[in-house]
Design goal:
Elements: H1 6-9, E1 15-23, H2 28-38, E2 43-51, E3 64-72, H3 83-94, E4 97-102, E5 107-113, H4 118-128, E6 134-141, H5 147-151, E7 157-159, H6 167-180, E8 185-188, H7 197-202, E9 207-211, H8 223-230, E10 234-241, E11 251-258, H9 265-288, E12 292-295, E13 298-301
Parallel strand pairs: 5-6, 5-8, 6-7, 8-9
Antiparallel strand pairs: 1-3, 1-4, 2-3, 9-10, 10-11, 12-13
Helix pairs in contact: 4-9
């Protein structure tokens, strides 16, 4: 993120997005609003949610408070370099986990893909249409099939073939590329490889996968065939953050399609690909717009 003097920011068109998670207590909304008002800030939108203690995350014994607030940048009296120090006393007082981002500094998103191109092409189409506020500095694949489709969009394509013998070496090269391109978010658009612990740790809560089933049903490979064998009446797709446990990370978004006894496996695959595309695209947009807070193995999503 580039930093500019506070004086130059006051009249530049941009907004701040502030995400907060902390123990719930009286006066939190007032405290945050007062901080913004004290610095001549104009609140454009604010959403909050309280997770009751009985629904606590991973056995939490107290209610949790979550908030997303967007502040108009023009006229706000705290510059980028100043904001962390200015907000820190309030955050410490209330035990807040928080982060701030700026709308004129779009996130840099890398896409990982294998042979199935439908999710990748959906993301690229929405990106070109202006629906995804991101920069895409690279696409990485373990197959060369989609190179021309990617490069037609002016995006560099890196082919890193993965075998049992080369997996560790290629993941190190992938991490090097992601770091070199200052990537903020990694999207697995049907990347049919299980990522190692080093990649997961480096991009924890910044690594979104699309799984072609309605998790927790049909974890792992070939879910459409297993769904057909089970005789399900709906199929689904799940966009989730990647963790060390296969297909078990915090869920960002899910969607479904209805099927019948007349549908073969191939029909489920066709219908499912449509669900996968829109489910992943929506989850990615929410992440890019700072609408997702991870809370244990759950998420709070301010749609």
């Amino acid at each position: 993120m580039s930093l500019v003097p506070a004086g130059d920011e006051r009249n530049r068109k941009h907004n701040l997005r502030l995400l907060i998670a902390c123990p719930d207590r009286r006066g939190l909304i007032s405290a945050v609003s007062s901080f913004i008002s004290m610095h001549d800030g104009n609140i454009l939108s604010a959403d909050q949610h309280v997770s009751p203690a009985e629904d606590g995350v991973e056995g939490d014994a107290e209610s949790r408070f979550f908030m997303r607030i967007e502040i108009e940048g023009a006229g706000f009296g705290v510059g980028r370099e100043e904001f962390p120090g200015s907000f820190a006393p309030l955050a410490r007082r209330h035990g807040m986990d928080w982060r701030v981002s700026y709308t004129d500094a779009p996130k840099r998103m890398a896409i990982l893909v294998s042979r199935h191109g439908h999710c990748l092409l959906e993301l690229l189409w929405r990106w070109e249409a202006g629906d995804l506020a991101a920069e895409i500095p690279l696409v990485v694949s373990n197959h060369p099939d989609l190179r021309e489709r990617v490069e037609a969009h002016g995006i560099p394509f890196y082919y890193l073939p993965v075998t049992k013998e080369t997996r560790e070496e290629q993941e190190l090269e992938m991490l090097r590329l992601l770091e070199e391109h200052a990537v903020d978010l990694v999207v697995l658009a049907r990347y049919m490889q299980v990522l190692g612990a080093d990649v997961v740790e480096a991009y924890r809560n910044r690594l979104i996968n699309i799984h072609h089933s309605f998790l927790p049903a049909f974890v792992g490979a070939d879910p459409y065939r297993r769904a057909h064998e089970r005789g399900v009446k709906i199929i689904g797709a799940t966009a989730h953050y990647v963790t060390e446990d296969l297909d078990a990370g915090p869920i960002v978004h899910q969607d479904v399609a209805h099927v019948t006894h007349r549908d073969a496996v191939e029909d489920l695959v066709r219908l499912g690909s449509e669900v996968e595309r829109r489910t992943l695209a929506r989850a990615v947009r929410w992440h890019l717009e700072d609408r997702v807070i991870v809370a244990g193995n759950r998420t709070v999503v301010f749609e």
